[in-house]
Amino acid sequence: MAKEKKLTTAAGIPVDDNQTSLTAGQRGPTLLQDHYLLEKLAHFNRERIPERVVHAKAAGAHGILTITNDISKYSKAKLFAKKGKKIEVLGRFSTVAGEKGSADTVRDVRGFALKFYTEEGNWDMVGNNTPVFFIRDAIKFPDFIHSQKRDPQTNTRSDTMQWDFWSQVPEALHQVTILFSDRGIPKGIPFMNGYGSHTYSFINAKNERFWVKFHFKTKQGIQCMMQDEADRLAGQDPDYHTRHLFEAIKKGDCPKWTFYVQVMPEKEAETYRWNPFDLTKVWPHKDYPLIEVGEMEMNRNPENYFAEIEQAAFSPANVVPGISFSPCKMLQARIFAYADAHRYRLGVNFERLPVNRPHVEVNNYQRDGHMRFDDNGGASPNYEPNSFGGPLADPAYKEPPLKISGDADRYEQKRGVDDDYIQPGNLFRLMPAAEQQRLIANICGSLGKTPKSIQEKMVAHFRRADKNYGDGIATGLGLK
Fold it and tell me: Residue 69 — φ and ψ, nearest 5°?
């Protein structure tokens, strides 16, 4: 029999009664001095921290990345140092547009965020289950997300808002094609791939830079859910994906992914057919084949969802020596935006929460702020330079210079007039005929709820990608 625990206040003071309030007489009003009642109600009022603006609904788990291949010629990161090396990892898998209580089986992109607790600090790979995105310049991001959220007047989701935005941003066509294909609704978290999506960089021991893309390919195989089944589950079991992942790990059916990279020598970016930093484009595998790095297994459920998953804070700014950034405009903005969102949601000391704290010693001059729950640096100096043994920067970790040229201006990233249509058309033509028909039906089901003028704009875009693609949608919408 478990030993009884004594109920206390947050200050550790024993509680004499957790069932009745302190009142003036049996029928009298409650007394303000019932500090335990006030503490209980005040804490309850604050149990919900601000939810994420995007990626609010998620499942999560802990796991292990095992390195299976030597890629040290590309990266000096110590996590890749030898075959068989194991790195602890935390994964968070989310929908994007819906709120925290929304259904798991909606048609949406899925977030695929991983935190690797390495010996050189935390590496966060914050990606999606798609290799591309709707936009390539972060200045459009708030507008794009607004189009995915609720109408400011009706407070309902609006097909018109999203299609109106997409009809004027043709770079979205590649991601739209993926979203409305079978892969728009995964059968479950174990049955989808994960991608870093952005181009990042590797730096090796010779200080050579390579451009790199990250891929996590499911070992369970891609499995997708048809729209009618997804709609049924949204009503019957809105937490279907969350429950499925938890129960699979609980019974030992732990999902696995193979970790690959695509690597491009730094110089080749200047002449490659596509802008390699354009988030709406993929690098064809025939040009840059997948190179295996390791195997990731999610094998441990959280003991407490709030502490380990809701408070988990991922940021593309968290890279370790040997992994770095690229000129991708979306990545450049996310380096700031993600950490800033966590400071808003969790407080300036969010990296000190147990789930976010690196598994290595942390030394810096950050002090004070909300929820500083360690010794706050004690008596050590809080400025630098100093004469009292404070931590020093190490120039050995300096990256090679990134060559930059050109005038400061606002540039479009594509390299040709048809750049935004070629890859979506190629993707459509890769699909079997039955999948093409389902894609067209899914698009018509949503686009058909919008004004005719928006339908006509979108059909013109689809036709530029592939005539049969556009004609099929036009027919489905009853347009000439």
Answer: -145, 150
> What is the rounded CA–CA span in Å between residue 72 and residue 80?
7
Instruction: Give me the phi and psi of 297, to 5 degrees please.
Output: -125, 130
Chain centre to alpha carbon of residue 401: 29
What are the domain boundaries of the chain? 58-159+186-362, 421-477
Cα separation, 8 vs 291, whole angstroms: 55
Q: What is the pLDDT of residue 1?
A: 66
- Give the pairing of strands 121-128 and 86-95: unpaired
Among 62, 122, 128, 193, the one annotated catalytic: 128
Could you tell me which residues are beta bridge partners of residue 211?
Answer: 201, 264
pLDDT digits (tens, 9 = 90+) for 98-107: 999 999 999 9
Q: Give me the CATH topology for the region 58-159+186-362.
A: Catalase HpII,  Chain A, domain 1 (2.40.180)
Given the residues 55, 198, 215, 342, the one annotated as active site: 55
CA distances from 209 to 119, 154, 205, 279, 324 (A): 22, 50, 10, 20, 9
Name the pTM for this structure.
Answer: 0.93
pLDDT in tens, 289-322: 999 999 999 999 999 999 999 999 999 999 999 9
**Helices 452-465/433-447 angle, 10° precision:** 160
- Whether 55 is catalytic is yes
Span 70-106, pLDDT tens digits: 999 999 999 999 999 999 999 999 999 999 999 999 9
How many C-alpha atoms does 413 have within 13 Å on its Cβ side? 19
The predicted-structure confidence for 340-382, as pLDDT tens digits, reads as follows 999 999 999 999 999 999 999 999 999 999 889 899 999 999 9
Question: Most distant CA pair in the chain: distance in Å?
Answer: 84
How far, in whole angstroms, is CA 9 from its chain's centroid?
37
Nearest to 61 by CA among 132, 118, 115: 115
Tokens 């309902």 — which residue? 156
**Six token digits for residue 391:** 């931590």
